Amino acid sequence: MGTRTRGQLSLVEAERRRLQAADLFEQGMRQSKVAEVLGVSRQAVSLWHRAWREGGSDALLSTGPGGRSYLSAGQEAELEVLLRAGPIEHGWEDQRWTLARIGRLIEERFDVTYEVSGVWRLLDRLGWSWQVPTVRAVERNEEAIAAWRTETWPAASHPRRSQPSAGGSASRTRPGPG
């Protein structure tokens, strides 16, 4: 059996706690007192109380370990193969994987939905990292970039250096010497 850190409950223990809360609700105990007695947050008790009010004690029974919210080891290996094939292979016109695109790929291929942050954690766990593409754009013109850096940018970043002084005033109320 796996080890748990402090604060984690098994599904059975968590269900038992929720059912205790249902008993206390039936006795008319206030939600804040239930939270105190069971050592849980008021927010958790509020959610339990709403579920209990709408569906009785049965609404607090465990539904298992979260359904299909995670990929199996085999699916993760298949995802890595799909990612290595590249975004173009999956219908995108550029060579960039984004978290949203990967999430969409996972949903379409495995019928599992991840939030963007979940995709990030999954990729991190699989050893993928955020990277800038090493391949430059096909349209990139090195000569035009060099000309822009040496001619256009200096003039645009320091407009006063390239213009002779007009000798005017920057004030709207006081005209310059005339």
UniProtKB/TrEMBL annotation:
Record's keyword terms, sorted: Plasmid
Keyword hit for Ion transport: no
Entry superkingdom: Bacteria
Polar residues biased stretches: 162-172
Transmembrane segments: none
InterPro entries linked: Homeodomain-like_sf, Winged_HTH_dom
Listed name of the protein: Winged helix-turn-helix domain-containing protein
Organism annotation: Streptomyces mirabilis
